[in-house]
């Protein structure tokens, strides 16, 4: 069975989107999602997102499997990509604004496609008690603000926030200096986080501009994390380091995050862009019947004439390619080197012209958006 997919990215956090509106169960298993996300042997991505039918009065349901096969509650960049994917499926006209109500494991999320093409998402209220996060860094109903945690021989002041998924935030002098691959897993799998955690390292540039690096639970170091950006702004406000609206600079680009005093909701605004579309096969290899090969009379084994007869055909007059060999020998004997080079140049020029003409008539094999494909996201 072949499954169509479309790949999107939000600030470099890339996802494989599947139209799953005809079924309430994901078309791809968690184990297969891990294969799909492999950047060497699969499509490549930080996760696979399924657009399923809505439930409880919502327009759609979102499920997501991480690149390690685990299932998180929600993903901020992923929800923007899903909103853009749905809009494209519905044929939403450019410049049109539309809002969607999406059911997730973290609750109701409401993204809006804006007229300028950006996606603004009502991410709901942050959850601040230790039980909601969950973590054992404080009493069950207590908040976790600047609580010390020893990791890798150093004490880190941690502030924890849940956006439907757990986040542990710490403030550093230089976010770029953090070696995520070394320290990230030690936070993610720390015993004080029973459901594991996403970890954000935040550098405060000023009260409305923060730099962020993230180690995501189940995905590792990523270029952006929408829920992490929301959680980080909340943590900065709780520590008196930021205003309630700020730009979060991530490796993949910027997000605008606002923690509204009016309704206590977080609002995230950022891009979601198409990368390409394609089809994933069943993974089965269908073998075709191999052509018959001549047999070496001395060994009784087949001879691959393309590789085994470089020093002369062992079949002599019985060689099935004898006529072609004689023609090749005559050509080499009677043609000058300059003439051979001239003929080769003409052949290359002709081949390039044929390829260019073929590309014009057949078009690309992938659906590629304006601006091309960023090779760093493949």
Overall form: elongated
- In N-to-C order, the SSE pattern is EEHEEHEEEEEEEHEEEHEEEEHH
| CATH topology type of the domain at 3-125 and 275-282 | Diaminopimelate Epimerase, Chain A, domain 1
Structural class comes to alpha+beta
If you average the pLDDT, what whole number results? 86
Distance between the termini: 24 Å
Oligomer: single chain
Total count of strands? 18
The major pleated sheet works out as:
18 strands, mixed
Task: Write a brief structural summary.
Helices cover about 20% and strands about 30% of the residues. With about 375 residues, the protein is an alpha+beta fold.
What does the model show?
This protein is 22% helix and 30% strand. It is built from 6 helices and 18 strands. The protein starts with a strand and ends in a 16-residue tail after the last helix.
Give me the secondary-structure topology.
Elements: E1 3-10, E2 13-19, H1 30-37, E3 47-53, E4 60-66, H2 76-90, E5 98-99, E6 102-104, E7 107-113, E8 119-124, E9 147-151, E10 154-162, E11 166-171, H3 180-188, E12 198-206, E13 209-216, E14 220-222, H4 226-238, E15 245-250, E16 253-259, E17 266-270, E18 273-280, H5 322-334, H6 337-362
Parallel strand pairs: 2-3, 4-6, 11-12, 13-15
Antiparallel strand pairs: 1-2, 1-18, 3-4, 5-7, 6-7, 7-8, 8-17, 9-10, 10-11, 12-13, 13-14, 15-16, 16-17
List keywords for this structure.
378 residues; alpha+beta; Diaminopimelate Epimerase, Chain A, domain 1; 6 helices; 18 strands; 30% strand; elongated
